[in-house]
Amino acid sequence: MSQKSSDSIKVVLKKHFAQINVSIVNNISDIEAVVAMKPDLIFMGLKFVPTNESLGRNDPEKIWLSKYLDDNGIRYTGSDEFALNCELNKEVAKARIKSMGISTSPFFVTIEGQKILEENIILNYPLFVKPSDRGGGLGIDENSVVHNFVDLLKKVDNISKIHSSNSLVEEYLPGREFSVAIMKNSIDGEYIQMPIEIIAEPDNKGNTVLSSATKALNEEVVVIVKDLCMNRLISEFAQNVFNALGAEDYGRIDIRLDVHGRPMFLEANLLPSLLSNYGNFPKACSLYLGMNHEAMILEIVKLGLGKEILPVYSKYNDFQPVIEELLLPI
Q1: What ranges do the domains of the chain cover?
Q2: Which of 21, 23, 76, 309 is deepest in the core (most CB within 10 A)?
Q3: Quick one: residue 206, left, alpha or beta (phi over 0 = left, psi -120 to 50 = alpha)?
Q4: What is the pTM of this model?
Q5: Max CA-CA distance within the chain?
Q6: What is the CATH number of domain 107-172+321-326?
Q7: CB 235 within 8 Å of CB 195
Q8: Is 174 strand, coil or helix?
Q9: How far is the CA of 7 from the CAs of 22, 294, 301, in angstroms?
């Protein structure tokens, strides 16, 4: 969570609650200190901390904050470790979605340092290339849509050098793009889906992709999906994805239509930006519910405070993604 987001949330919470603290968490000692305070609720702005700072998000021993809080009986906002792990690793999310019979564009993952052979590319060009574990449009630019093997290698190399990330490579989807904000009603427990269409200006190559530059400028047009059939189709699709990922309380599901107008899962954001008039989640809450920033934050808090504290167990042990099948053959 950015400092700006943290500050805006703190302003809201201080108006309604007696004691509000902001903790910067970089390691296990910081997490232990937070738990020792026995807060009534943690407003989540962080997914994990690495045990080895030099490995960062690639640390296999990283500590998932939601699991640590679950283990210590501390309530928090948003989703648990399973869902956040899916969100962080786009190939795992797509494998999960595919295993549940939900449509997503065919894909594979390139591994940093491994050679890519042209004869192993079985997908149809054009392809779309992005980091496998980054959000916010990072690594996405006018070179993300590739039409041949040479351009694919250049983009994969660029992602590796700049973002130190594997690359997710999928068949490019040429259709309309939607983002669906999903939030549980704290009163009746029912979920509401708020689909918006995102309309971005074509880049220098004529593609309408949501690059990091486009998102930073916040100039893309977002509109309510007024066609009732399309609204229902996109809403049901997004809720199915949300459920399949094991997400809770609130989040955002991104969808793009294929050449035949069929919805395809792009990615999930289960800790979406909550900055007023910036992120697609607050924009959707405003468009559909007339909900301002303060009301949105308070609703998320209510959902977190309403969580049951139960003995820890995993209801997802049946899912073991066969990652080997997702990796590009060597």
Answers
A1: 3-76, 107-172+321-326, 174-305
A2: 76
A3: left
A4: 0.87
A5: 63
A6: 3.30.1490
A7: yes
A8: coil
A9: 9, 13, 16
Residue found by looking up tokens 């259709």 in the block: 175
Q: Which one-letter DSSP state was computed for residue 114?
A: P
* Whether residue 11 has pLDDT greater than 60: yes
Q: How many whole angstroms separate alpha carbon 242 and alpha carbon 7?
A: 28
pLDDT at position 204 over 90: no
Tokens of 84: 């956040």
Residue 73 banded pLDDT, cuts 50, 70, 90: very high
Beta strands in the chain (DSSP E): 48-49, 63-64, 107-110, 127-131, 145-146, 167-171, 177-184, 191-199, 221-224, 250-257, 263-269
Is 174-305 a domain of CATH 3.30.470.20?
yes
Hey, which residues does 199 pair with through a beta bridge? 221
User: Which pLDDT does position 1 carry in this prediction?
Assistant: 72
User: Distance between alpha carbon 30 and the CA centroid of its chain, in Å?
Assistant: 25
In the chain, the N- to C-terminal Cα span, in Å, equals 38
Interatomic CA distance for residues 79 and 157, integer angstroms? 33
Residue 138, pLDDT score: 83
Cβ-based neighbour number of residue 257 at 10 Å: 18
